[in-house]
Structure formats: C-alpha cells, structure tokens
Design brief:
Jelly Rolls; 33% strand; globular
Length: 305
Amino acid sequence: MKISLAAGCLLSLAGCASLGARATLAPNLVAFYDFEHPLPGDPAREQDQGSSGTPFVLVNGGAAMRVEDGAHPGSRYSLQTKQVNPTADGNDDWKGGNFSESGIPSLRAFSRVRGVTVMTWVKRSGPPAFNTNTANPSDVYNAVGLAGILTGNSSGHDVRALLEIISVRDTMRLVALGRRLDGGNSATYAARERWEDLLPLNQWTHLAATFDFDNGTMALYRDGRELPGFYANTGDPWEIEGGAEPDLASATDPRGMKIGGSFPQNTDERNPFDGRFDDIMFLDRALTPAEVLLAYERFRAGVVP
C-alpha cells in the first residue's frame, strides 16, 4: 500500500522538498493508476486515483495482470502487459486502457487542452514483439506502445499524446508523439540515446513526455532528467502558425487511453509491450523540467501524489 505524502517527508529531504510541488500538480492530475485499487466487485478494472474517476480496464489478462512488483518503495503492485501468442493473428495480448466510440466525458480535460504530460514507471522484459499482422513469421513490429491518450476520432490507435518506441529514420527510438488536431498530422520528438540504454531490461525506469500544443514543443524525460532529442517532422505539422491564439487540441473528448499496445477495445492487436507499468499519470498541462524532477524524487522517496 502506498504511503502518505507526510510520511514520505519523514523519509528523506526529497520527499519534503516535493511538498510544495504537490499543490501545483494535483489540480492537473486528471487520471492516475497505481494498480493498488481494484474496482470493487470487478478486479479486471482499476480505480482512477486522479480527478476524472475514469476506470481502467485490464484487457485480456484481467486481475492476473496486477502483479506484485512495485516500481519504488511506496508501491506494491504494477501492471503486466505482454504479447500472448507471437505466431497467430488474434486479440489476446495483455494491454490496458479504455475506449468509447462516442468519447469519454470524464476525460474532457483533454478536450481543447493547451498541454499534456504523460508519466509512468516502465520495466521492459523483452525486445519488440513479432508482428502478427503480416504473413512473414519473422517480421517484428516497428513500434512498441507505452502510454497515451487517444484522439476524439481514434479507431483505438491514433493518439493525442503518446510515449512510444518507434522507428525514426530507420532507427528505433524512444519518442513523444503528439497530434493537436483530430485527423491532423502528428509530430514526433525522438530521444538521441539508444532506446535499449534508456529502457534497460528488467529495470524500473521513470519516463515522462510533455506536449505544449500552443508553443509546438515536446520534451522527454528519463528518471527526472530531460533527454537530448530532435524533431522528426519538418514544417508545421500541428498547424499552429497564424490564426487565433492560443493553439489548443481539438474540442473533442478523447475516445480513451491505451497502455502497452493499441486498440484497448480489443478489436485488434498491434505494437504490444512486454513488460510492466506502475503509477501511470496523465496531466492536462505540460510540466516544467523542475516539476518532472520533483515528481521522480517524490516516487524515489516512497511518496505518491
């Protein structure tokens, strides 16, 4: 069971230093899943510890996906995702999220939003999975889905804000991928460091991605440190030049969120992640580098906002 902020302050200076940050972050914490809170009567769903109250579905594996392996001293459980059958096209991969074709009203904070932050602990247990959507059994997916918010017109794959590993200029990289307008172009910000070094096997790593739709900027963080990177797109993919200010995301409720793969409604499988997630957080603001660092330090002190 995760401990309180006040108790964590007694554990370390990092916990005490984050007391001021908590008041800044809490109003923007729309959805937060720590996998310590099964929905009463339905352990295949997780309660939202953020402000939205949006249930999170443990797809295909149900309660078995909640495993006893916390990412930090204040955590006991995490979420296991994986490819179940690498040789067959099916809908059995373990992943998480939620989906509604009409949009999810409880996630309305991400409609006409100026910025988004996605943060999560990740523990990788394998390489990119075999592609079950092609006839060649040796094909491997060119992307690994981590954590993201869907667009308002998504089929279960297109995203408004996403942490992902994907091929950029023929090299797999850790990226932040954002789309300001439903049906519009996405923009990608890619880390320069090797993704295998950023996500070592069998080791918990804290990741964050920020998306500022008004300024047209993104950033990536690993264990509280901002990562050097580059934009893979040229021009103005988010269409922010000219027109009215500020530049906001589309005025639509997201159709949901996806964790560890695509299509949380379980109509298809794509880009599965073999590993674990803990403390998945979605905020309706692009955090500053100092705020991301404080959040990471708070987790390391065993304190969760």
